[in-house]
Amino acid sequence: MRIGLIGTGRIGSFHAASLARHPDAGSLLLADAEPGRAARLADRLGATAAPSVDQVFTWGVDALVVACATEGHAGLVVRAVRGGLPVFCEKPIAPDLARTLEVLREVTAVGGLLQVGFMRRFDAGYRTARELVRSGALGRLHTVRTMTADPAPPPAAYLAGSGGLYRDCLVHDFDMARWVTGREVTEVYAAGSDAGPAAFRESGDIDTAAAVLTLDDGTLVTCTGTRCNGAGYDVRMELAGERDQVSCGLDDRTPIASTEPHGPPPASKPWTGFLERFGPAYEAELAAFVRLVRGEGANPCDGREALAAFRVAEACERSRRERRPVRLEELPDL
């Protein structure tokens, strides 16, 4: 098997290294908008660098991993599925809902195989939480709380094309709200703050957000997120039912300190970022893609699953801007 990978920045380099270690992944063909960056990574991994993105397609590969900047995702996914290539695409599929729907209609029309990168589906803690909810161990679920807190804002240049805090960051929480509970979001109410660094106001984005989601069985989900959590990288999910409650992401590296006299000590080595915290999950999702390409497993996150989370993010952005609850049925769907 020969796998092409486009985009050799931070996440693309991580994916390339994971594939290079995978016994069934075969050879790698790397490309980047900056050919020199792809060449340097190829040298380190014993892979091949293509002089341009076009040559990944003309030289021939058996599957494609799209890990470039967001604005390039849609065109590459469409080009891959039209060429009969299975494709793994980092989220989001496209920067906005309209283009996302266009891409997914194309994927459906040609019968393409698309896996979208929602890595928390492969994290051990979230998987255990899902099993507990689905088994009934927690009883009737009534409250879910999620948090995603980055230790520092991304570069200002990144913000302009990120899609905003809901679409770029909290979309993972929205995916988990559905995936763990097995329920659909029916309505959202969201608010945001741009009181932090000026770059957020200048780009029309927010640095901190909160949203209340109502699920189709009446369960309430509160989601909070920020780009300015100096204590460290903090991603958690709490699920409370009538019998019991559990927490994902609560361990000896969670960057939070207790004010209680007999509370646990603060983390001596807090999580520093998403690649460190979710490294094993990222590896597992690429391994799942290899199995999918080989015909040995089901698709763990297809385009429709990714769309469901993105529609929630879109609804939250509309709710924030219009200062009102937004029902998911207001948004277009496939």
Automatic annotation (TrEMBL):
All copies of domain Gfo/Idh/MocA-like oxidoreductase N-terminal, residue ranges: 1-118
Signal peptide: none
Sequence segments annotated as region (Disordered): 248-272
Family annotation (Gene3D superfamilies): Dihydrodipicolinate Reductase, domain 2 (3.30.360.10), NAD(P)-binding Rossmann-like Domain (3.40.50.720)
GO molecular function: nucleotide binding; oxidoreductase activity
Domain GFO/IDH/MocA-like oxidoreductase residues, every copy: 126-244
Keywords tagged on the record: Oxidoreductase
Protein family: Belongs to the Gfo/Idh/MocA family.
Name of the molecule in the record: Dehydrogenase
